Amino acid sequence: MPDVLVAGAGPTGLLTAFELERAGLDVLVLERDAVPTTQSKALGLQPRSVELLADRGLLTAIEPHVQAKLPAGHFSGVPIGYSDLSTRFPYQLGVEQVHVAAAIEARLRTPVLRGAAVTAVTQDDDGVTVTAGGREHRAGWLVAADGGHSTVRTLLGAAFPGRPARVSLVVADLTLAAKPAGLAEDWQLPSQGSGYLLPLSGGRYRTVVFGEEQQRLGRDEPVTAGELQRALTAAHGPGVVVGEVLWASRFGDASRQLERYRHGRVLFAGDAAHIHLPVGGQGLNLGLQDAANLGWKLAATIRGTAPSGLLDTYHGERHPVAARVLVSTRAQAVLGVPDPDAAAVREVVMGLLAVPEARRAVAMEISGLGLTYPGVAERATDVPAAPDGRAVLVGAALPPGWADRVETRAGAGPRLVRPDGYVVWAGGPGLEEALLRWLGTGRPVVGATGSAS
Ligand SMILES: Cc1cc2nc3c(=O)[nH]c(=O)nc-3n(C[C@H](O)[C@H](O)[C@H](O)COP(=O)(O)OP(=O)(O)OC[C@H]3O[C@@H](n4cnc5c(N)ncnc54)[C@H](O)[C@@H]3O)c2cc1C
């Protein structure tokens, strides 16, 4: 019996499984789709995600697929420069999401079980029973990373407050039989308008359209080449001719977040826990950081060494971060509304973003680099994660009894770094307190399940 079941082999589920496996646990990922998807929703990795993947040795396999290093992110289409941010990776990587997922999946010990859609979940004091692909699976815990339409969320009746979609959009990858004049052939930041065309590899282009026709059509209406042709002609004129539509999907700007990320022995992560308009490119970043935050806490809880309440700091730390992204994406969507008053607000905001301090504050937020948690200092930019998911103590002597949970390294600037890369002690008194607070006493508590449900 695995220690943990993970529902969903998207980037969030896969990284959660990776984190748990490197901490020595047995994990089984249950994925609905029979074969890995070839379609990428996200096309960008924010700097904090790049750091996290690099620290885990996962970036090397992604690098051959990187199509661009963009020295900026954007806020509602306004470029936000990253070049002065303190990171080894002051840029967004332009890379299709499938390559990120494939790089993580290739490093899992236990292969993903595909064609295994979760259809039922029950839990008791000792574990969870999950029906997937018509078979029952049992484990101590379930991580629900089954995406924005999460079945697990529905099965548990978990409150998912927010607002429904007001705008309908279509994302499509297609070839062009004729290109509009002046079409940029390099990878650029997506413009704000409907019908931008971004060159992918192999002669494919990515577009997102959200004109009047998309607002009229129902969510289940198939996307046709004719619909895309009309939208692209409206954006670029008669010179553009759609060739083959390779993939198309409708999506909306619904903005919702789970009230609680933990429901007993079920923990939610990624799009299963929060949905928003993908403007600014923050969804994938959020999911990967959820996984990095949850993995080591759940592993310590299962080993029985976690300090009291550690697992509940997952909700405590990650819920506010996604709540802030929901605020940011809603604000960015308003700035893009084709209305004179929204245009006026946009003009004011663009003026503010020209002020270096304001631009930097927004850059830190969108890049994920500015993230800190209550009672935790900022991330350690130069301390790669330990391969086995232990915390890392740099430049200080480790008191006896912690070596199973802390790797020690020589180096200047004493720091204790959590397994997810955040500094919880930076010299002076308080090392033992920090060890106790984040890593527990090291005396396994039989049957420990963390505190809340
Ligand atoms: C058009 C578009 C563009 C985007 N662009 C960006 C961007 O540039 N940058 C960015 O950061 N984010 C972007 N995003 C958001 C990003 O793609 C998501 O946030 C990201 O995919 C979330 O990953 P996830 O693993 O949580 O969920 P998903 O990627 O949705 O993965 C969920 C997985 O669960 C599986 N599943 C579903 N139901 C079940 C079930 N019942 N049982 C088992 N498995 C199940 C699915 O098949 C899937 O494999 C974009 C989103 C869209 C729609």
From TrEMBL:
It comes from the Bacteria. GO terms for molecular function: FAD binding; oxidoreductase activity, acting on paired donors, with incorporation or reduction of molecular oxygen, NAD(P)H as one donor, and incorporation of one atom of oxygen. InterPro entries: FAD-bd (IPR002938), FAD/NAD-bd_sf (IPR036188), RIFMO-like (IPR050641). Keywords: FAD, Flavoprotein. Pfam families: FAD_binding_3 (PF01494). Residues 3-326 form the FAD-binding domain. The keyword Kinase does not apply. This is 2-polyprenyl-6-methoxyphenol hydroxylase.
